[in-house]
Design goal:
By secondary structure, this protein is α/β, with parallel strands linked by helices. The protein contains seven helices and six strands. It has one domain (3-234): 3-Layer(aba) Sandwich (Rossmann fold).
Length: 243
């Protein structure tokens, strides 16, 4: 059974939510238009290549919005995710920028701590995320006044309060899918034939780096397959943790 068959169920307010999402993206493109002609927009989508972010990339492209898209290619992504990245780059009207970790930093870390360091302790796992995600993220967001994420309140307890517009940090974070359900996401994917990661069809709802992502079983939480050896409160890579 595909992820579409399993999940595509629009909530009763889906049309209203979609209209709000489109309006928020259009407003962002206006508010954070390039300062000078020829410059890049001052707003960008952090695209993990998961279903939510593929929906947002699809909306940005179909609405022809001047909003950048970037992907953090950590060097640990599944083969399926890398192939999806190639397809997105080939099909996207908006440029898809790829940010990778500093090669020497990953080599040094693996030499010092081992390739399975993330399983040894939370500090080592976070150190790996720092090198492979956080440092590239800081480069991806340099010069941007706002960024867009696919965070949804339903994803985890830690995300239950996610606002549509988060102004608590100097760089504004927009979460246009904050109130979408998982069913809404897949309804949009099905209706619009959005490309998606085939791992979603293998019970991977949330997809990150290969060593830190597993399939979930029926009844398990949405993010149970991420850093499954850690407790719930520690399970963020730092991208969405308040400074
Ligand atoms: S998710 Fe895992 S492999 Fe990826 S950067 Fe974090 S610790 Fe490293």
């Amino acid at each position: 059974m595909s992820a579409i068959d399993l999940n595509a169920r629009a909530s009763s307010t889906f049309a209203q939510k979609l209209a709000e999402t489109q309006a928020l993206l259009q407003q962002a493109a206006r508010d954070y238009a390039p300062s000078n002609a020829g410059d890049e927009p001052r707003v960008t989508l952090a695209c993990s290549l998961g279903a939510e972010d593929m929906v947002l990339a699809h909306l940005i492209n179909t609405l022809q919005l001047n909003i950048g898209i970037f992907v953090l290619e950590t060097g640990q992504l599944h083969a399926e995710t890398l192939v999806l990245l190639e397809r997105l780059q080939a099909s996207s009207r908006t440029k898809v920028s790829v940010f990778k970790p500093v090669a020497q930093a990953t080599i040094d870390f693996v030499a010092r701590e081992g390739k399975d360091a993330m399983y040894k302790s939370i500090p080592l796992r976070k150190a790996c995320c720092q090198i492979r995600k956080m440092e590239p993220l800081s480069r991806a967001l340099a010069g941007k006044d706002a960024w867009i994420t696919g965070l949804r309140r339903e994803q985890s307890g830690a995300r239950a309060e996610v606002p549509l517009i988060d102004t608590s940090e100097p760089r504004v974070k927009l979460n246009p899918l904050a109130n979408w359900t998982w069913g809404d996401v897949w309804f949009y994917v099905a209706e619009n034939q959005v490309d998606y990661n085939p791992l979603h069809d293998q019970f991977y709802p949330s997809i990150g780096c290969a060593p830190c992502t597993r399939a979930i079983s029926l009844g398990e939480d949405f993010r149970a397959g991420r850093w499954w050896w850690e407790n719930e409160t520690a399970k963020e890579c730092g991208l969405h943790v308040k400074s």
